[in-house]
Amino acid sequence: RFHMRIISIIVNRKNRSHVAGEITRMPGPLFFTIADMRLGGPSGLKDITETFAGFSQEVRAQFLYKNSKRVNTILSYVKGDIEKLPRVWKQALRQVGATIDKLDCAGWRLRPILLRRIEIYFPNLKELGLPQCFITNHVYLAFSLVHFPELTTLNLEGNTPVQDWEFLQKFKKLKALNLQGIHTVNLQLLTSLSTLLELESLDLGGCNLTDVGLKLLVDKYRKLEMLLGIQKNYKIAQLEFLGLAHTEITDEGLEALQGLHQLASLDLQGCAHITRKGLSCLRGLQRLRSLNLSECPEIYESCLNFLPRGLITLDVSGNSSITSKGVEIICANNPFLEKLSLNNCQKTGAEAFLHIKKLQFLSELAVSSANITDSDLDHLGSLSLKKISIGGTNQISDSGLQKIALYPHLEELQLLVTPTITNEGVVQMVNSMPHLKMLKVDGCAKITDALKDLLKEKNFALEITHIL
After folding, report:
1. Is the pTM above the cut of 0.85?
2. Residue 231 pLDDT > 50, yes or no?
3. DSSP secondary structure string, 221-280?
4. Are 302 and 276 contacting, i.e. CB atoms less than 8 angstroms apart?
5. Which pLDDT score is estimated for 93?
6. What ranges make up the beta strands (E) of 132-239?
7. If I label 397, which of 38, 145, 233, 355 is the partner at 20 to 30 A Cα–Cα?
8. Cα–Cα distance measured from residue 42 to residue 251, given in angstroms and rounded to the nearest whole number
9. Could you give the CA distance from residue 368 to residue 356 in angstroms, rounded to a whole number?
């Protein structure tokens, strides 16, 4: 009501020039609240035009400039009928857009006219996200992207096939490139990738990449490194993250990776042809610290002895052959693990948690559907866990939740498909956890909507993302 009275006064005051000055001097939060109420989102252009019809275009532009400091507001105009805006309003939008260096256009229908507006209103982008977009003209997409030579991050995940990749060679400062789900991995793409001297993160997950293509890419890196090394003493193999999830890569392809000396993180999720031979090849990567082997059907418990040493993040989720003995091997060979995921490793037992207890640096643990019980939770209390995900079992009860409440550093907790816990047990647990920031409850049969009210009354800083 207070805000509505202010708006009424603004509209009805006779001295509009004085009121206009007061508007531009309003405190940030109050000003934005009023602006949001009048704009009403992307459809609010008519509202603001009618409300401030008596003000000069300069004042309206200043109003728009203040309200548009958030990217979503300016995007609503860029995607809409921006050509009907007064010239001074467009200038205000350009002023704001020039200060924005990060833009996410996920799911947009990227017509040439919209690409052209992105060029005009966001000229200084350094991070551009175009995931899951419907691109009507790939030629114009390439033409538009070259207008952002300062890009350091580009996300083209899940887009329709691109045939001409030569435009990538224009991004000399590109550090992160996401091409997940792009199925057109051809010679031109591999050649263009090898020219990106600053590239540190490359995601080719879900692409039609084979051993031949991966070897070709690494060979091009090596040859360019030799050439530049002679001329400028420069190392080209800067890649620190490589995503190969759900590709046709085999052990031969992993052998080629030994040329990437800086590689620190490797995602092999769902690679169906990786065996112990491939894992042994990874030991040559001295800087490798993060490895994802989830859902790799040929990685058996006996293969774990061939894992690289010195890992700090390891994911072997979905490996049904791993028992407590496998967990012992993992913990013994990688004692400095900080993140460990054993989701859906259903053959692990109580002994597994005795070994996990020895990982003194562990901060994140995922053991959903990993045969965990109330008594197993006792072993984890000595760790400095900040995040834990448990569930997929009827052996965790409210008694187990009270043991979790004793974890002194826990900030994020996920309780997934845990049918025996109740509202009362969750509330009692949370009441003893002052550092908890996020709670996710999913698929727990005895949890009801009343939990939201109970937690709200307690004024806990929690996020309930799903309740059945």
Report:
1. no
2. no
3. HHHHHHHHHHHH--------EEE-TTS--BHHHHHHGGG-TT--EEE-TT-TB--HHHHH
4. yes
5. 77
6. 134-135, 153-155, 176-178, 201-203
7. 355
8. 51
9. 15
d(Cα 252, Cα 148) in Å, to the nearest integer? 37
What contacts 233, CB < 8 A, 6 or more positions away?
none
Q: How far apart are CA 17 and CA 23, in angstroms?
A: 10
Could you tell me the two tokens for 350?
A: 């109580």
Strand extents, DSSP E, 255-342: 265-267, 290-292, 313-315, 339-341
Q: Are 407 and 436 contacting, i.e. CB atoms less than 8 angstroms apart?
A: no
Is residue 103 classed as helix, strand or coil in its secondary structure?
strand
For residue 257, give both structure tokens.
């990776």
> For the chain, what is the total number of helices (H) and then of strands (E)?
18, 16
Please tell me the predicted confidence (pLDDT) of residue 65.
52
DSSP 77: H
Q: Residue written as tokens 């049918």?
A: 419
What is residue 46's predicted lDDT score, i.e. its pLDDT?
A: 42
Residue 97: what pLDDT? 82
Instruction: List, in order, residues 6 or more apart from 51 with CB less than 8 Å away.
Output: 7, 10, 11, 38
Phi, psi dihedrals of residue 464, rounded to the nearest 5°: -95, 110
Give 137's contacts (C-beta < 8 A, 6+ positions apart): 111, 112
Q: Is 117 helix (H, G, I), strand (E, B) or coil?
A: helix
